Amino acid sequence: MHRTSIVAAAAALAAGVGTALASDSVSFLGSNLDPIIGSGISNDNFIIETDPTSGIELGLKAHNRFVGDLARSGNVYTADTGTTLSPTNLLGSTWNVTWVIDFGGAPGALVYDIEWLMDFDPSAGSSYATLDVDNTAFFSGDATSTQLGASENALFNFWGVPFPGFVDASGHIPFDPNAIGTYDSILRIKEKGTENVVAEAQIFVNVVPAPGAVAMLGLGGLLAVRPRPAPRATPTTSRRAGTTRPRATLRDAEGTSHTDCAPAPNHNTGHDPHPKRRDERPDAAERTEKHT
C-alpha cells in the first residue's frame, strides 16, 4: 500500500520537486525488493525520484505479474490484455503496479501524507481511486517505518470499496483487464497536513492486445495506444524530517513475501482493505505465491 513524482529531470528541478535519477534501480535495496515487499520482484526498471532536502528516494514501476519486468520507454510501460491467476486463486490483470520508498531515516507515516492514485479509465481521460498510505501504515502497525512499499493489481476489489480515511473510491470505474487503453498511477508524498508536495512520481501503462489475441484478429502487429502526456510539474516546497527510528517495513497488503502482492484481507468479498498486523497474518505456507 503506498507513493511519489515523475516529470523529466529538468522539469522536476525547475519545479523544485526533487531530482529524477538516471538509474532505474533504487539505491537502498539489493537486486530484489526484499525485505520491503518480498522476493520475486526485481529492483530494476523503476521510475525513480529523490528529494535531497528530506533524503527521500522512491521508485514506481509496472511489471508483468509472476513473470518479470515490462518493456518501457521513459515512464510508459507496455502490458498485455488478459488475466492471471495466482496459486491461491487470486485473479488479476497481467500487470501490477509496485512502489518502494525510503524516507531518509524519518518515520514516514508520522511525518508525511502519502497518496497512491490508480487510474481506472482506459481512455484519454483519468479517473482515480486513491489509497491513503499513511493511514494504512498506522493501521498495520508500520507508522514509524522508515521504508515502505507495496505491489497491487487494478483488478483487486479493494480499489472500488469506499473506506473513509483509507480508500477514496469516488473515481473508481469497473476495471476490464481485456480493455485496450492507457492507465496511469501516481505516488505522492506531501508534508503532513499540507498540500506541499515533497516527492511525486507518475507512470503510464499502455495495455495492448496479447499476441494470441492479435493473431486471432488477423492483425499484423500489436495495436499501439497513444499514452497520455505526463502533466507538468507543480512548484512545491520541501523540508527535512527531523525524527529518526531504526528501519521497519510495510510489506504488501497481506504482509506476504512473494513475487506478486495480494490485496488486502477478504478483497474477493469486498471487506477490510488494510494489512493485518504480523501476528494476525496467515501461515506462510498458505500465503506464499511463486513464479509460474
Separation, N- and C-terminal Cα atoms: 24 Å
| Alpha-beta content class | mainly beta
Q: How many DSSP H or I helices? A: 5
Q: Gyration radius, to the nearest Å?
A: 18 Å
Major β-sheet profile = 7 strands, mixed
What are the low-pLDDT stretches, counting only 5+ consecutive residues below 50? Answer: 1-22, 219-226, 231-292
Strand content is 25-35%
Helix content percent band: 10-25%
Overall 3D form: globular
Q: Please, what is the average pLDDT? A: 75
- N-to-C order of helices and strands: HEEEEEEEEEHEEHEEEEHEH
Domain unit count? 1
By DSSP, the count of extended strands is 16
Description:
Helix content is 10%, strand content 29%. It is mainly beta and 292 residues long. It has one domain. The strands form three sheets. Strands 1, 2, 3, 4, 9, 12 and 16 form a seven-stranded mixed sheet that branches. A seven-stranded mixed sheet has the order 5-6-15-14-10-11-13. It is globular, with a radius of gyration of 18 Å. The relative contact order is 0.23.
